[in-house]
Amino acid sequence: MIQKDEYFYGGSEPVYPSPEMTGSGEWKEAFNRAKEFVGKMTLDEKISLTSGTNSETSCPGFLPAISRLKFPGMCLADAGQGVRGTDFVSSWPSGIHVGASWNKELTLARGKGMGGEFRTKGVNILLGPVVGPAGRVVSGGRNWEGFASDPYLSGVLVGETVKGIQGVGVVASTKHFIANEQETNRNPNNGVEAVSSNIDDRTMHEIYLWPFQDAVRAGTGSIMCSYQRVNNSYGCANSKTQNGLLKTELGFQGGVVSDWGAQHAGVATAEAGMDMAMPNGGDFWGSHLKDAIKNGTVPESRLDDMVLRTIASWYQMGQDNDFPTPGVGMPKDLTKPHRIIDARNSSFKSTLFDGAVEGHVLVKNIRNALPLKSPKLLSIYGYSAKNPDENNPTDGLSPWLMGSGSFDYQEFGAGFFGWSGATPGTTGIAFNGTLYSGGGSGATSQSLAISPYDAILQQAYEDDTALFWDFHNGKPAVDPVSSACLVFGNVWAAEGADRPGLRDDYTDELILHVASQCNNTVVVFHNAGIRLVEEFIGHPNVTAVIFAHLPGQASGKALASILYGKENPSGKLPYTVARNEDDYGVMLRPDKPEGIFKYFPQSNFTEGVFVDYRHFDENKIKPRFEFGFGLSYTTFGYSNLAVEKDGNRSFEEFPKGKTVEGGQEDLWDALVRVEAEVENKGEVEGKEVAQLYLGIPGTREEKVPIRQLRGFEKVLVGVGETKKVVFELTRRDLSVWDVRAQKWRLGKGEYNVEVGGSSRNLPLSGKFTV
């Protein structure tokens, strides 16, 4: 039995000292202004900006003001789906919903709209977006906050999100860095250390670091380090990941902030590259950091760099000029009189609605079940059709604050707060109503929300449709003359606990019960993660299935527009739906303390780069619904593939460019151009996501996935119309990480290009040679 941490020393390569900010590229002016600012600060003032303090706001994190230098302080607030814990804000589609939309332009607009609400509320740093977890652990409790189980898709969407948020002057804090893939044992507790994510160098670069690289390239002003250990070194004290990968290799110019309570050392975190401790300095920084500076244990230059990175981000976003007072719209107690700061912007209503629509994925639709056409009688069943019984803020740590109004709050609290009296991760569904987001610090605060039942009721009124419903019974009475029966279930997931499984008996039995008596049963899941469907998917009376994910406040309105054909579904799965849980292999469930590692739980990423569809392809496993799959009310055809190398670009083995934000600058050179045509062969206009997958040649020593997503374009195609799509493949897109050279290597050989509507529906194929 291993009793001491010393056993693991050296498992994570030490990288010192922590690189200082250089002010390269677009950061030059902000860097120079920040350097002048920091030069005027006293030691105590600099120490004060390395950790949070209490405030008269509900900002989860707050940097104190320095009135002498006219610095007003900074408010840090949750999260990546919208402002949490205050009133007069919107509930935006969650990360998984954005991923299912595969829509770059809509993602950018969401970032702008969401960022604008944070700004109006006086939030300087938005604690999001999320690209860690990356979806490795299929039952992970926080997968819904991220975009996809694919690094390329996540990378593109996180880049657009960062641009949108920071385009309105709010700092994006991209999180959780890095390999934060499970909630089980995420923190040390009762003598057991946090779980260690043990990852080889190539897998780290090609899967987990990839989307963070896109966020850094987009200019993210902040990165949040994670709770768990990486190769047995805590995330916020890991010099390899923070000093080596982030600040050296990727040229990151912003600051690293700890997740709340993720700091477990003082000098070690300072030297390893962490720049800000939240929610406070606790037992490690504050006066202790001052002592370490004065006695020379930590050089004052490291302190200066910590503060410089924070202040430079403040200047970079223009927050020194006409930014609202920090936390002005974040009242400490919403149940007490407070000033109304309405952050909602009516010009983004269409973004909220369109975002909700496009994240719905239709995976089954037989016998023209959908769209509905003025049905005579609709019957609605299931606990997830209606709103929760309460949407009302109360003082303190309320269900509303934590996004768990539909769920058992005692069980949620057992996972998130460590309450006794319940076992976390035992219930997979939320019985008390539909889901607009998952639970925890990433939850949304609904100022308005339209449930599926609300929207369908309104349409039924317009159509003179008779409507029956039963939200509570697992075996309801069913009128067999119903034109259609709609069954609503959900998949609950939240911070603090991983899911008990990928399906639940109660909902499956409800679906089968209704389908046994209704020959047109439509199933809708509001799912905060992957949901298996084998128990009912083949039933002849289950005519349609929709993964509705987490649409935010426009949920019901968006769903009704799809059900009735006012909108054509265009979402695609950002993950793979298996036939059996075991098909996911070691990635199904979180790892737990066991054997000699009872006190030091280990999660060994032995699958390497073969996650999600890469795993299914490599092991020749047939999924139920493949990555990238989604149906439409029309059909699309593909033709005229053209592949052309750029003769003016270098195809040398390794990049030679200088390091800029995001890595070596020539990694982003477009080396190959691919074109294809998409034709709408159906009777209604629709949007199609054309996807490009690349087969990259490897060496004898490295196993390379059969195909990897390396491009996607979402296009609106009219009836009978043909649209051209263009993909630009960069040097990074064509490369694998070379662990010896410590660079991205452009391999020699034949590259396979495939284009189509999903990862297993790729009618166009071509090749090029390097």
Features:
globular; single chain; about 775 residues; 27 strands; six-stranded mixed sheet; alpha/beta; about 25% helix; about 20% strand
Number of helices: 18
Shape: globular
SS content category = alpha/beta
Structural Rg: 25 Å
Task: Tell me what the structure shows.
This protein is of the alpha/beta class. The protein is built from 18 helices and 27 strands. It has a 6-stranded mixed β-sheet with strand order 1-2-3-4-6-9. Strands 10-15-14-13-11-12 form a 6-stranded mixed β-sheet, sandwiched between helices. β18 (659-660) and β19 (663-664) form a beta hairpin. α4 packs across α11 (349-358). The longest helix has 17 residues, at 104-120. The protein is globular. It starts with 27 loop residues before the first helix and ends with a strand. The relative contact order is 0.13. The mean pLDDT is 97. This is beta-glucosidase. It comes from Podospora comata.
